[in-house]
Amino acid sequence: MKYRILLITSFAALQTTGYAQPPAEPTDITPLLIGEKASELKLTKVDGGSVSLNEIISGKQTVLIFYRGGWCPYCNLHLAELQSIEQQMLAAGYQIIAISPDSPESLKQSIDKNKLNYMLLSDTKSEAAQAYGIAFKAPDRYKERLSKASSNQNDGVLPVPAVFVLNKQGEILFEHINPDYKKRIKGSLLMVVLNELREAEPAK
Questions:
Q1: Which of 19, 71, 106, 126 is the most exposed place for a label (fewest CB within 10 A)?
Q2: Which of 64, 6, 65 is nearest to 34 (CA)?
């Protein structure tokens, strides 16, 4: 069984080739759909090294998180809640990867602040957020904060907070996307989804 929780009230024109200009409103994003997958993506690790997101995903089914940054209190609460259920996710066969526009240095601060064990990746130029169709132009009040958190690499683009559950081929099995950044999927509900997805897997 496949799931989709998508709380978007309106849609912009679908992207055709490359990355379209991010919309001005979070309600106008055009996320990838269930069954789709993103193209090859290179992101930056906490130590500054480059890593292939697709390669990491190919090793294990993945709960892929997009969050606004370590400066966002709602994101920190969500990251901490995910940490509290990480062992349950691992037992269900899923790893956690969280992506934000933060620089590697800012990611390290988030790891230390929230005592995180799972992987955080830097997407300062929002290429991953655009590939998954959840990037939008941040309001002007965020631009200085985004620039500082990204070591001056982000020119004012934010991801709508999102959770994608991916198989080893990178295909989306479930997604939860809400333009209201104050509302995140509860860990208990996410675990229900992961366990049901596991039960729905074809017998080997």
A1: 19
A2: 6
Q: Contact at 8 Å (CB) between 135 and 22?
A: yes
Residue 76's Cβ-count burial label (10 Å; 0-12, 13-18, 19+) is: middle
How much of the chain is helix, strand and coil, in % rounded to 5? 35, 20, 45
* One-letter amino acid of 198: R
Identify the CA nearest to 137 among candidates 156, 162, 116. Answer: 156
Mean per-residue pLDDT, 7-12: 40
Tell me the per-residue pLDDT of 38-81, one tens digit each, with 9 for 90 and over.
Answer: 989 999 999 999 999 999 999 899 999 999 999 999 999 999 99
What are φ and ψ of residue 184, in 5° steps? -125, 155
Structure tokens that stand for 85 in this block: 């259920």
**Whole-prediction pTM:** 0.89
Residues sharing a CB contact under 8 Å with residue 61, sequence separation 6 or more, in sequence order: 93, 94, 95, 165, 166, 167, 168
Domains of the chain, each with CATH number or no CATH = 5-9+26-200 (3.40.30.10)
Range 23-32 average pLDDT = 96
pLDDT band at 199 (very low <50, low <70, confident <90, very high): confident
